[in-house]
Amino acid sequence: MTAFVVVGAGEAGGTAVAKLREGGFEGNLVLIGAEPMAPYERPPLSKEYLRGESDHVFVRPPEWYADHAIDARFGAKAERINVTDRVVELEGGERVPFDQVVIATGSRNRRPKIDGLDLPGVFDLRYAPDADAIKRAAKEASKAVMVGMGFIGAEVAASLRQLGLDVTVVEFFGTPLERVLGPTIGGAIEALHRDHGVEMFFHDGAKRFEGGGRFEAMITKEGRRIEGDFAVVGVGVEPVTEVAEGGVPVDNGIPVDATLATSVDGVWAIGDVARHDHPVFGSIRVEHFDNAQKMGEHVAKNLLGPTAVFDDAHWFWSDQYDAEIQMAGFATEWDDMVVRGSIEDRSFSAFLLKDGRLLSTFSMNRKFDVRRSMPLIVAKTHPDREQLADPEFDLRQLHPPKEPAP
Amino acid sequence: MAEWVKVGSAGSVPEGEVTAFGVGERQVAVANVEGDLHAFDDTCTHMQCSLAEGELDGTIIECPCHGSQFDVTTGEAVGGPAVDPVGVFETKEEDGELKVLVGEE
Description:
In chain A, 22% of the residues lie in helices and 30% in strands. Chain A is built from 8 helices and 26 strands. In chain A, helix 1 packs parallel to helix 6 (289-304). Chain B has a single domain, classed as Rieske Iron-sulfur Protein (3-layer Sandwich), CATH 2.102.10.10. In chain B, the strands form 2 sheets. In chain B, strands 1-10-9-4-3-2 form a 6-stranded antiparallel beta sheet, with no helix packed on it. In chain B, a hairpin with a 5-residue loop joins strand 7 and strand 8 (77-79). The radius of gyration of chain B is 13 Å and the shape is globular. Chain B starts with a strand and ends with a strand. In chain B, 38% of the residues are buried.
Protein backbone atom coordinates (compact mmCIF):
# COMPACT_ATOMS: atom_id res chain seq x y z
CA MET A 1 0.00 0.00 0.00
CA THR A 2 1.24 3.51 -0.77
CA ALA A 3 2.56 5.31 2.32
CA PHE A 4 2.56 9.08 2.83
CA VAL A 5 4.40 10.32 5.92
CA VAL A 6 4.09 13.85 7.32
CA VAL A 7 6.86 14.90 9.70
CA GLY A 8 5.74 17.73 11.96
CA ALA A 9 2.28 18.01 13.50
CA GLY A 10 1.57 21.72 13.64
CA GLU A 11 -0.93 23.63 11.52
CA ALA A 12 0.76 22.72 8.24
CA GLY A 13 1.30 19.02 8.95
CA GLY A 14 -2.10 18.54 10.56
CA THR A 15 -3.86 20.22 7.66
CA ALA A 16 -1.91 18.20 5.10
CA VAL A 17 -2.96 14.92 6.70
CA ALA A 18 -6.57 16.02 7.07
CA LYS A 19 -6.81 17.18 3.47
CA LEU A 20 -5.15 14.02 2.18
CA ARG A 21 -7.65 11.78 3.92
CA GLU A 22 -10.62 14.03 3.17
CA GLY A 23 -9.37 14.27 -0.41
CA GLY A 24 -9.68 10.53 -0.86
CA PHE A 25 -6.23 9.13 -0.08
CA GLU A 26 -6.75 5.57 1.15
CA GLY A 27 -3.16 4.44 1.71
CA ASN A 28 -1.06 4.45 4.87
CA LEU A 29 -0.98 7.91 6.34
CA VAL A 30 1.47 8.62 9.16
CA LEU A 31 1.72 11.86 11.13
CA ILE A 32 4.80 12.27 13.34
CA GLY A 33 4.91 15.16 15.81
CA ALA A 34 7.29 15.98 18.66
CA GLU A 35 4.54 17.60 20.71
CA PRO A 36 2.33 15.25 22.74
CA MET A 37 -0.86 17.01 21.60
CA ALA A 38 -2.82 16.66 18.38
CA PRO A 39 -2.19 19.61 16.02
CA TYR A 40 -3.60 22.84 17.43
CA GLU A 41 -3.64 26.45 16.36
CA ARG A 42 -0.85 28.59 17.75
CA PRO A 43 -2.26 32.10 17.09
CA PRO A 44 -4.57 32.02 20.16
CA LEU A 45 -1.60 31.24 22.44
CA SER A 46 -0.61 34.91 22.54
CA LYS A 47 -4.20 36.18 22.51
CA GLU A 48 -7.47 34.49 23.53
CA TYR A 49 -5.85 31.43 25.11
CA LEU A 50 -3.30 33.48 27.06
CA ARG A 51 -6.09 35.68 28.41
CA GLY A 52 -8.13 32.65 29.43
CA GLU A 53 -10.91 33.42 26.96
CA SER A 54 -10.63 30.28 24.86
CA ASP A 55 -9.41 26.72 25.11
CA HIS A 56 -7.20 25.19 22.45
CA VAL A 57 -8.48 25.25 18.90
CA PHE A 58 -7.58 21.98 17.20
CA VAL A 59 -6.91 21.52 13.47
CA ARG A 60 -9.11 18.43 13.75
CA PRO A 61 -10.59 17.06 16.98
CA PRO A 62 -7.99 14.84 18.77
CA GLU A 63 -10.12 11.72 18.16
CA TRP A 64 -10.36 12.47 14.43
CA TYR A 65 -6.99 10.87 13.71
CA ALA A 66 -7.87 7.42 15.04
CA ASP A 67 -11.33 7.65 13.48
CA HIS A 68 -9.74 8.23 10.08
CA ALA A 69 -7.07 5.53 10.31
CA ILE A 70 -4.22 8.02 10.67
CA ASP A 71 -1.13 6.46 12.23
CA ALA A 72 -0.59 9.45 14.54
CA ARG A 73 2.68 9.47 16.48
CA PHE A 74 2.30 12.42 18.84
CA GLY A 75 5.25 12.89 21.17
CA ALA A 76 7.58 11.04 18.79
CA LYS A 77 10.79 12.59 17.59
CA ALA A 78 11.81 12.10 13.97
CA GLU A 79 15.58 12.12 13.81
CA ARG A 80 16.35 11.84 10.13
CA ILE A 81 14.78 11.41 6.76
CA ASN A 82 16.80 8.68 5.11
CA VAL A 83 16.24 9.34 1.42
CA THR A 84 18.32 6.35 0.32
CA ASP A 85 16.26 3.76 2.17
CA ARG A 86 13.15 5.98 1.99
CA VAL A 87 12.37 5.76 5.67
CA VAL A 88 11.91 8.28 8.46
CA GLU A 89 14.12 7.29 11.38
CA LEU A 90 12.60 7.90 14.78
CA GLU A 91 14.32 8.35 18.10
CA GLY A 92 14.56 4.84 19.55
CA GLY A 93 15.38 3.28 16.21
CA GLU A 94 12.03 2.72 14.53
CA ARG A 95 12.04 3.22 10.75
CA VAL A 96 8.85 4.45 9.10
CA PRO A 97 8.82 3.76 5.35
CA PHE A 98 7.43 6.31 2.92
CA ASP A 99 6.66 6.67 -0.75
CA GLN A 100 6.19 10.41 -0.30
CA VAL A 101 7.22 12.47 2.72
CA VAL A 102 6.17 15.99 3.69
CA ILE A 103 8.45 17.97 6.02
CA ALA A 104 6.42 20.31 8.21
CA THR A 105 8.72 20.73 11.19
CA GLY A 106 8.05 24.45 11.55
CA SER A 107 10.25 26.83 13.44
CA ARG A 108 11.50 27.29 16.96
CA ASN A 109 12.20 30.40 18.98
CA ARG A 110 15.64 31.92 18.73
CA ARG A 111 17.54 31.65 22.00
CA PRO A 112 19.72 34.76 22.10
CA LYS A 113 22.90 34.65 24.17
CA ILE A 114 21.74 36.56 27.23
CA ASP A 115 23.07 35.80 30.70
CA GLY A 116 20.31 34.45 32.88
CA LEU A 117 18.09 33.33 29.99
CA ASP A 118 17.57 30.00 31.77
CA LEU A 119 16.49 31.57 35.07
CA PRO A 120 13.05 30.45 36.23
CA GLY A 121 10.59 33.20 35.42
CA VAL A 122 12.15 33.97 32.03
CA PHE A 123 9.76 32.66 29.37
CA ASP A 124 9.34 32.53 25.66
CA LEU A 125 6.21 31.57 23.74
CA ARG A 126 5.85 29.02 21.02
CA TYR A 127 4.11 25.89 22.33
CA ALA A 128 1.02 25.31 24.45
CA PRO A 129 3.01 24.64 27.66
CA ASP A 130 4.80 27.98 27.17
CA ALA A 131 1.44 29.77 27.13
CA ASP A 132 0.36 27.82 30.23
CA ALA A 133 3.53 28.84 32.06
CA ILE A 134 3.08 32.54 31.21
CA LYS A 135 -0.59 32.34 32.17
CA ARG A 136 0.28 30.86 35.56
CA ALA A 137 2.99 33.45 36.17
CA ALA A 138 0.66 36.29 35.18
CA LYS A 139 -1.94 35.21 37.74
CA GLU A 140 0.37 36.04 40.63
CA ALA A 141 2.22 38.93 39.05
CA SER A 142 1.76 42.66 38.71
CA LYS A 143 4.63 43.50 36.38
CA ALA A 144 6.03 41.84 33.27
CA VAL A 145 9.27 42.67 31.50
CA MET A 146 9.53 41.89 27.81
CA VAL A 147 12.20 41.71 25.13
CA GLY A 148 11.13 42.25 21.53
CA MET A 149 8.18 44.01 19.97
CA GLY A 150 7.55 41.92 16.90
CA PHE A 151 4.11 40.39 16.37
CA ILE A 152 4.41 37.91 19.23
CA GLY A 153 5.84 40.52 21.58
CA ALA A 154 3.18 43.07 20.67
CA GLU A 155 0.37 40.54 21.12
CA VAL A 156 1.69 39.26 24.44
CA ALA A 157 2.17 42.83 25.67
CA ALA A 158 -1.45 43.61 24.74
CA SER A 159 -2.80 40.46 26.39
CA LEU A 160 -0.84 41.06 29.60
CA ARG A 161 -2.09 44.65 29.75
CA GLN A 162 -5.63 43.33 29.24
CA LEU A 163 -5.02 41.01 32.20
CA GLY A 164 -4.13 44.07 34.26
CA LEU A 165 -0.35 43.73 34.45
CA ASP A 166 2.14 46.54 34.05
CA VAL A 167 4.32 45.86 31.02
CA THR A 168 7.74 47.25 30.09
CA VAL A 169 9.33 46.26 26.77
CA VAL A 170 12.74 46.82 25.24
CA GLU A 171 13.04 46.64 21.45
CA PHE A 172 16.15 46.69 19.27
CA PHE A 173 14.58 48.80 16.50
CA GLY A 174 13.08 52.30 16.70
CA THR A 175 9.41 51.25 16.77
CA PRO A 176 7.49 48.00 17.17
CA LEU A 177 7.72 45.93 13.98
CA GLU A 178 9.90 48.53 12.30
CA ARG A 179 11.93 45.93 10.43
CA VAL A 180 8.88 44.53 8.61
CA LEU A 181 6.53 47.51 8.51
CA GLY A 182 8.74 50.60 8.48
CA PRO A 183 8.68 53.51 10.93
CA THR A 184 5.32 55.01 9.92
CA ILE A 185 3.20 51.93 10.53
CA GLY A 186 5.49 50.90 13.37
CA GLY A 187 4.80 54.31 14.92
CA ALA A 188 1.07 53.68 14.73
CA ILE A 189 1.53 50.42 16.63
CA GLU A 190 3.76 52.16 19.16
CA ALA A 191 1.04 54.77 19.74
CA LEU A 192 -1.55 52.02 20.20
CA HIS A 193 0.53 50.37 22.93
CA ARG A 194 1.51 53.67 24.53
CA ASP A 195 -2.17 54.59 24.82
CA HIS A 196 -2.78 51.27 26.53
CA GLY A 197 -0.08 51.95 29.08
CA VAL A 198 2.82 49.84 27.83
CA GLU A 199 6.21 51.33 28.72
CA MET A 200 8.57 50.92 25.75
CA PHE A 201 12.27 51.54 25.35
CA PHE A 202 13.60 51.43 21.79
CA HIS A 203 17.13 50.92 20.46
CA ASP A 204 17.80 48.82 23.51
CA GLY A 205 18.02 45.13 24.31
CA ALA A 206 18.50 42.66 27.12
CA LYS A 207 22.02 42.25 28.43
CA ARG A 208 21.34 40.12 31.49
CA PHE A 209 18.53 38.67 33.56
CA GLU A 210 19.14 38.77 37.30
CA GLY A 211 17.58 37.18 40.32
CA GLY A 212 18.25 35.01 43.32
CA GLY A 213 17.02 31.71 41.95
CA ARG A 214 14.25 33.39 39.98
CA PHE A 215 13.92 36.36 37.63
CA GLU A 216 13.86 39.70 39.41
CA ALA A 217 15.25 42.24 36.95
CA MET A 218 16.59 42.76 33.46
CA ILE A 219 19.72 44.81 32.86
CA THR A 220 19.65 46.34 29.39
CA LYS A 221 22.45 47.09 26.97
CA GLU A 222 21.85 50.80 27.56
CA GLY A 223 22.28 50.28 31.29
CA ARG A 224 18.65 50.32 32.41
CA ARG A 225 17.59 48.10 35.26
CA ILE A 226 13.97 47.01 34.80
CA GLU A 227 12.41 45.03 37.61
CA GLY A 228 9.44 42.72 37.23
CA ASP A 229 7.81 39.48 38.35
CA PHE A 230 8.63 37.60 35.17
CA ALA A 231 10.08 38.16 31.71
CA VAL A 232 9.01 37.14 28.20
CA VAL A 233 11.53 37.03 25.35
CA GLY A 234 10.24 37.24 21.77
CA VAL A 235 13.04 37.84 19.33
CA GLY A 236 12.10 35.76 16.31
CA VAL A 237 12.29 32.17 15.17
CA GLU A 238 14.50 29.87 13.13
CA PRO A 239 13.46 26.93 10.94
CA VAL A 240 13.70 23.41 12.37
CA THR A 241 15.72 21.57 9.73
CA GLU A 242 17.72 18.88 11.56
CA VAL A 243 15.54 16.06 10.25
CA ALA A 244 16.45 16.95 6.65
CA GLU A 245 20.18 17.26 7.12
CA GLY A 246 22.32 14.77 5.26
CA GLY A 247 19.60 13.91 2.76
CA VAL A 248 17.63 16.97 1.72
CA PRO A 249 19.29 20.32 0.96
CA VAL A 250 18.98 22.91 3.74
CA ASP A 251 19.56 26.65 3.27
CA ASN A 252 17.59 29.01 5.51
CA GLY A 253 14.88 26.38 5.78
CA ILE A 254 14.28 23.68 3.22
CA PRO A 255 14.22 25.06 -0.31
CA VAL A 256 11.20 24.00 -2.37
CA ASP A 257 10.16 24.87 -5.89
CA ALA A 258 6.93 26.70 -6.74
CA THR A 259 4.94 23.47 -6.25
CA LEU A 260 6.41 22.85 -2.73
CA ALA A 261 8.62 19.97 -3.90
CA THR A 262 12.24 19.75 -2.72
CA SER A 263 15.00 18.74 -5.12
CA VAL A 264 14.73 15.15 -3.77
CA ASP A 265 12.12 13.04 -5.51
CA GLY A 266 9.09 12.41 -3.29
CA VAL A 267 10.16 14.87 -0.58
CA TRP A 268 8.09 18.02 0.02
CA ALA A 269 8.25 20.83 2.58
CA ILE A 270 5.52 23.15 3.84
CA GLY A 271 4.89 25.78 6.51
CA ASP A 272 7.50 27.78 8.42
CA VAL A 273 10.32 25.44 7.44
CA ALA A 274 9.75 25.72 3.68
CA ARG A 275 11.73 28.28 1.74
CA HIS A 276 9.43 28.59 -1.21
CA ASP A 277 10.21 29.78 -4.73
CA HIS A 278 7.08 31.92 -4.91
CA PRO A 279 6.00 32.92 -8.43
CA VAL A 280 5.23 36.48 -7.30
CA PHE A 281 7.54 37.20 -4.36
CA GLY A 282 10.56 35.08 -5.26
CA SER A 283 12.38 33.13 -2.57
CA ILE A 284 10.44 33.47 0.67
CA ARG A 285 10.01 31.67 3.96
CA VAL A 286 6.80 32.61 5.75
CA GLU A 287 6.19 32.22 9.49
CA HIS A 288 2.44 32.72 9.63
CA PHE A 289 -0.61 30.57 10.35
CA ASP A 290 -2.57 31.11 7.14
CA ASN A 291 0.40 30.19 4.98
CA ALA A 292 0.97 27.01 6.99
CA GLN A 293 -2.64 26.02 6.54
CA LYS A 294 -2.77 26.88 2.83
CA MET A 295 0.48 25.04 2.12
CA GLY A 296 -0.90 22.03 3.98
CA GLU A 297 -3.97 22.08 1.77
CA HIS A 298 -1.90 22.63 -1.32
CA VAL A 299 0.62 19.86 -0.76
CA ALA A 300 -2.28 17.45 -0.20
CA LYS A 301 -3.73 18.44 -3.58
CA ASN A 302 -0.36 18.06 -5.24
CA LEU A 303 0.19 14.62 -3.72
CA LEU A 304 -3.20 13.54 -4.99
CA GLY A 305 -2.40 15.22 -8.34
CA PRO A 306 -2.20 16.98 -10.68
CA THR A 307 0.63 19.19 -9.39
CA ALA A 308 0.04 22.93 -9.31
CA VAL A 309 2.03 26.03 -8.37
CA PHE A 310 1.40 27.63 -4.95
CA ASP A 311 0.91 31.37 -5.41
CA ASP A 312 -0.98 32.48 -2.31
CA ALA A 313 -0.72 36.20 -1.51
CA HIS A 314 0.18 35.46 2.15
CA TRP A 315 -2.18 36.90 4.70
CA PHE A 316 -2.15 37.20 8.44
CA TRP A 317 -3.90 38.97 11.24
CA SER A 318 -2.83 40.27 14.61
CA ASP A 319 -5.38 41.41 17.20
CA GLN A 320 -3.98 43.85 19.76
CA TYR A 321 -6.46 45.35 22.25
CA ASP A 322 -9.41 46.45 20.12
CA ALA A 323 -7.25 46.95 17.02
CA GLU A 324 -7.72 44.47 14.19
CA ILE A 325 -4.53 44.34 12.19
CA GLN A 326 -4.14 42.47 8.92
CA MET A 327 -1.46 42.26 6.30
CA ALA A 328 -1.00 40.57 2.95
CA GLY A 329 1.79 40.31 0.40
CA PHE A 330 5.49 40.66 0.96
CA ALA A 331 7.72 43.71 0.71
CA THR A 332 11.29 43.94 1.93
CA GLU A 333 11.59 47.41 0.46
CA TRP A 334 9.21 49.86 -1.12
CA ASP A 335 9.53 53.34 -2.62
CA ASP A 336 5.95 54.50 -2.12
CA MET A 337 3.31 54.10 0.55
CA VAL A 338 -0.30 55.17 -0.07
CA VAL A 339 -2.47 55.58 3.01
CA ARG A 340 -6.24 55.20 2.91
CA GLY A 341 -8.09 56.48 5.98
CA SER A 342 -6.45 57.97 9.06
CA ILE A 343 -3.39 56.63 10.85
CA GLU A 344 -4.13 58.97 13.76
CA ASP A 345 -7.66 57.60 14.15
CA ARG A 346 -6.35 54.03 13.83
CA SER A 347 -8.59 53.28 10.91
CA PHE A 348 -6.37 52.99 7.89
CA SER A 349 -4.83 50.84 5.22
CA ALA A 350 -1.31 51.32 3.92
CA PHE A 351 -0.43 50.12 0.43
CA LEU A 352 3.27 49.47 -0.11
CA LEU A 353 4.43 49.90 -3.71
CA LYS A 354 7.67 49.61 -5.62
CA ASP A 355 7.96 51.16 -9.08
CA GLY A 356 4.20 51.51 -8.95
CA ARG A 357 3.53 47.84 -8.31
CA LEU A 358 1.51 46.83 -5.26
CA LEU A 359 3.61 44.51 -3.08
CA SER A 360 1.84 44.49 0.25
CA THR A 361 -1.14 45.91 2.12
CA PHE A 362 -1.39 46.57 5.85
CA SER A 363 -4.54 47.61 7.63
CA MET A 364 -5.71 48.55 11.08
CA ASN A 365 -9.46 48.44 11.67
CA ARG A 366 -10.35 48.49 7.97
CA LYS A 367 -11.34 44.92 7.47
CA PHE A 368 -11.86 44.58 3.72
CA ASP A 369 -8.95 46.40 2.09
CA VAL A 370 -6.30 43.76 2.74
CA ARG A 371 -8.31 40.79 1.51
CA ARG A 372 -9.56 42.74 -1.50
CA SER A 373 -6.02 43.74 -2.43
CA MET A 374 -4.71 40.18 -2.48
CA PRO A 375 -5.71 39.38 -6.08
CA LEU A 376 -4.04 42.67 -7.09
CA ILE A 377 -0.80 41.65 -5.38
CA VAL A 378 -0.75 38.22 -7.03
CA ALA A 379 -1.52 39.75 -10.44
CA LYS A 380 1.41 42.21 -9.97
CA THR A 381 -0.95 45.12 -10.51
CA HIS A 382 0.13 48.77 -10.75
CA PRO A 383 -2.95 50.41 -9.21
CA ASP A 384 -3.85 54.07 -9.41
CA ARG A 385 -2.66 55.98 -6.30
CA GLU A 386 -5.81 58.05 -6.04
CA GLN A 387 -8.02 54.99 -6.14
CA LEU A 388 -5.91 53.35 -3.46
CA ALA A 389 -6.16 56.44 -1.26
CA ASP A 390 -9.93 56.79 -1.70
CA PRO A 391 -11.79 55.05 1.17
CA GLU A 392 -14.90 54.88 -1.02
CA PHE A 393 -13.17 53.09 -3.89
CA ASP A 394 -13.89 49.35 -3.88
CA LEU A 395 -10.68 47.50 -4.75
CA ARG A 396 -12.72 44.61 -6.18
CA GLN A 397 -13.26 46.77 -9.25
CA LEU A 398 -9.59 46.21 -10.08
CA HIS A 399 -9.64 42.43 -9.69
CA PRO A 400 -8.53 40.46 -12.72
CA PRO A 401 -11.37 38.45 -14.25
CA LYS A 402 -11.83 35.10 -12.53
CA GLU A 403 -10.80 32.00 -14.36
CA PRO A 404 -13.77 29.75 -14.99
CA ALA A 405 -14.01 26.87 -12.52
CA PRO A 406 -12.39 23.68 -13.84
CA MET B 1 -40.61 22.32 16.04
CA ALA B 2 -39.54 24.64 13.30
CA GLU B 3 -41.50 27.82 12.70
CA TRP B 4 -41.41 30.78 10.36
CA VAL B 5 -40.06 33.84 12.17
CA LYS B 6 -40.20 37.36 10.81
CA VAL B 7 -36.73 38.89 10.88
CA GLY B 8 -37.20 42.03 8.79
CA SER B 9 -39.08 43.52 5.92
CA ALA B 10 -39.06 42.08 2.43
CA GLY B 11 -36.27 43.54 0.30
CA SER B 12 -34.20 44.52 3.35
CA VAL B 13 -31.18 42.51 2.14
CA PRO B 14 -30.00 43.96 -1.18
CA GLU B 15 -28.34 41.80 -3.82
CA GLY B 16 -24.76 40.85 -2.97
CA GLU B 17 -25.20 41.81 0.69
CA VAL B 18 -25.41 39.91 3.98
CA THR B 19 -27.29 41.03 7.08
CA ALA B 20 -27.50 39.45 10.52
CA PHE B 21 -30.80 39.30 12.40
CA GLY B 22 -31.45 38.33 16.00
CA VAL B 23 -33.78 35.34 16.23
CA GLY B 24 -34.34 34.57 19.89
CA GLU B 25 -30.95 33.75 21.38
CA ARG B 26 -29.23 33.27 18.07
CA GLN B 27 -28.03 35.38 15.18
CA VAL B 28 -29.12 34.36 11.71
CA ALA B 29 -27.43 35.84 8.65
CA VAL B 30 -29.30 36.29 5.39
CA ALA B 31 -27.32 36.58 2.15
CA ASN B 32 -28.77 37.74 -1.14
CA VAL B 33 -27.09 35.89 -4.02
CA GLU B 34 -28.41 37.19 -7.34
CA GLY B 35 -31.85 37.65 -5.89
CA ASP B 36 -31.99 34.35 -3.99
CA LEU B 37 -32.04 34.63 -0.20
CA HIS B 38 -29.99 32.16 1.85
CA ALA B 39 -30.14 32.11 5.65
CA PHE B 40 -27.45 30.55 7.82
CA ASP B 41 -26.07 30.63 11.34
CA ASP B 42 -24.18 33.89 11.69
CA THR B 43 -21.63 32.46 14.14
CA CYS B 44 -18.42 31.13 12.58
CA THR B 45 -17.69 27.58 13.75
CA HIS B 46 -13.99 28.37 14.04
CA MET B 47 -13.83 31.12 16.68
CA GLN B 48 -17.38 32.50 16.85
CA CYS B 49 -17.01 35.69 14.82
CA SER B 50 -20.02 37.17 13.02
CA LEU B 51 -20.02 35.95 9.43
CA ALA B 52 -22.33 38.76 8.31
CA GLU B 53 -19.41 41.13 8.99
CA GLY B 54 -17.46 39.30 6.32
CA GLU B 55 -17.38 39.44 2.56
CA LEU B 56 -19.79 37.64 0.25
CA ASP B 57 -18.35 36.46 -3.07
CA GLY B 58 -20.87 34.53 -5.13
CA THR B 59 -22.26 31.92 -2.75
CA ILE B 60 -19.19 32.00 -0.48
CA ILE B 61 -19.13 34.01 2.74
CA GLU B 62 -15.70 34.65 4.21
CA CYS B 63 -15.26 35.18 7.94
CA PRO B 64 -13.64 38.57 8.62
CA CYS B 65 -11.57 37.23 11.54
CA HIS B 66 -9.52 34.34 10.20
CA GLY B 67 -10.68 33.71 6.65
CA SER B 68 -12.93 30.67 7.10
CA GLN B 69 -15.23 30.24 4.12
CA PHE B 70 -18.72 28.76 4.00
CA ASP B 71 -21.07 28.05 1.14
CA VAL B 72 -24.23 29.93 2.09
CA THR B 73 -26.43 27.52 0.13
CA THR B 74 -25.29 24.41 2.06
CA GLY B 75 -23.52 25.74 5.16
CA GLU B 76 -20.47 23.64 4.29
CA ALA B 77 -17.02 24.89 5.39
CA VAL B 78 -15.10 25.17 2.11
CA GLY B 79 -11.92 27.00 3.09
CA GLY B 80 -9.85 28.41 5.91
CA PRO B 81 -9.50 27.01 9.42
CA ALA B 82 -13.16 26.16 10.12
CA VAL B 83 -14.08 22.48 9.84
CA ASP B 84 -17.69 22.23 11.01
CA PRO B 85 -20.51 23.55 8.82
CA VAL B 86 -22.91 26.32 9.85
CA GLY B 87 -26.62 25.59 10.02
CA VAL B 88 -28.76 26.76 7.12
CA PHE B 89 -32.42 27.78 7.16
CA GLU B 90 -35.16 28.23 4.62
CA THR B 91 -36.28 31.77 3.88
CA LYS B 92 -39.28 33.36 2.25
CA GLU B 93 -40.67 36.78 1.62
CA GLU B 94 -44.41 37.20 1.98
CA ASP B 95 -46.80 39.96 2.92
CA GLY B 96 -43.88 42.41 2.83
CA GLU B 97 -41.96 40.43 5.43
CA LEU B 98 -38.68 38.50 5.38
CA LYS B 99 -39.12 35.20 7.23
CA VAL B 100 -36.73 32.47 8.26
CA LEU B 101 -37.71 28.88 9.17
CA VAL B 102 -35.90 28.13 12.44
CA GLY B 103 -36.16 25.20 14.81
CA GLU B 104 -35.28 24.86 18.45
CA GLU B 105 -31.55 25.01 19.19
